[in-house]
Amino acid sequence: MLFDSSRDSLRQQWLDAWQRAQAGAILTPLESSLAQLIQDHPEYHAWLQQGDRAVHADFSPDGGVANPFLHLSLHLGIREQVATDRPPGIAAVHRQLSQRHGQHDAEHRMLEVLAKTLWESQRAQRAPDEQAYLEDLRRL
C-alpha cells in the first residue's frame, strides 16, 4: 500500500511493482502506474535490479547521483495532478507542453517546477502555493 510512509517501504513498493510487471503478474492500477513509469526510465532499470541496495541507498544533493525514487515519484505526482486537474488548469498546461515537447519531456519540465515548489514549501514550513506553482508551470 502506498500510504505506508516509511522511505524504505515506499521504495520497496516501486521495486515490487517492477518485479511483478516483469514476471507478467496481474497488477493493481497503482502497480501498473508504477511499472509504466519505471518502463519509461530505462536509465534506472539496472539500479532497480539491485533490490535491497536500491531500497536503502542514500542520495544526497552533493552526491552527484539522482534519486530515481524521487524522480519517479515526482512523475507520479504530476500524472495525478493532471488526471484530477488540481490545481485547476494544470491539465491544460500539460496538454500544451505535451504538444510541443511530447508527454515525457513535458512531465520532466513540470516535475522540476513541482520539486522547486515542494522544496520552497518545506523550507518555509507552509502548504505549497498552488497559484504560484501554476504560474511557474505556465511560464514553461
Outline the fold blueprint:
Blueprint: H1 7-22, H2 29-39, H3 45-48, H4 52-56, H5 68-84, H6 90-101, H7 103-124, H8 130-138
Helix pairs in contact: 1-2, 5-6, 5-7, 6-7, 7-8
How far the N terminus sits from the C terminus, by CA atoms, comes to 34 Å
Largest sheet: none
Which oligomerization state do the chains in this entry correspond to?
single chain
Quickly count the domains: 2
Description:
The protein has two domains: about 1-55, no CATH class; about 65-140, no CATH class. It contains eight helices and no strands. The chain has helices at about 5-20, 30-40, 45-50, 50-55, 70-85, 90-100, 105-125, 130-140. Helix 5 (about 70-85) crosses helix 7. The longest helix is centred in the last third of the chain and has 22 residues, at about 105-125. The protein is globular, with a radius of gyration of 16 Å.
Q: What tags apply to this protein structure?
A:
140 residues; mainly alpha; 2 domains; globular
Would you summarize the structure shown here?
The protein has 140 residues and is mainly alpha-helical. The chain has two domains: 1-57, no CATH class; 65-140, no CATH class. 69% of the residues lie in helices and 0% in strands.
